[in-house]
Amino acid sequence: MKQIVRLTKIFRFEMAHALSGYKGLCRHIHGHSYQLEVTIKGQPDNTPGRSSEGMVLDFGDLKAIVQEEIIAPLDHALMLKEGSVLSLGGVDNELFARIVWTPWQPTCENMVLDFAGRIIAQLPDGVTLCRLKLYETHTSYAEWYASDNID
Hints:
This protein is an alpha/beta fold.
């Protein structure tokens, strides 16, 4: 009998963004302490003698994927939509060394969509992404579910 297990790992990172053209205060550069919950699923590998025996995916392997795809490029960065006006005249450019330009508005919703694509592309066969939950604040988050995104 096939038995499926879900695993969740939680990640934290700091990032700033601004919403170009937005009418509220979020049009200004501001930062958040993000929390990302990544849930995967699969059947545990019960092949005797394998180092991954009994695991869907080693938590360390999941951590490495999320670290490479999301945390390393975005932690302590500033995310802006391409075409946003950013004047650096007279400012120490070293302060702006970690700008991440995106073709989409850097909302929590768009970030979680982007993160899903990045993670899915790196998961091994037999392991699927079930859910992402990206907290922008302690009380506000966006969620992505694989079951909602079936073609």
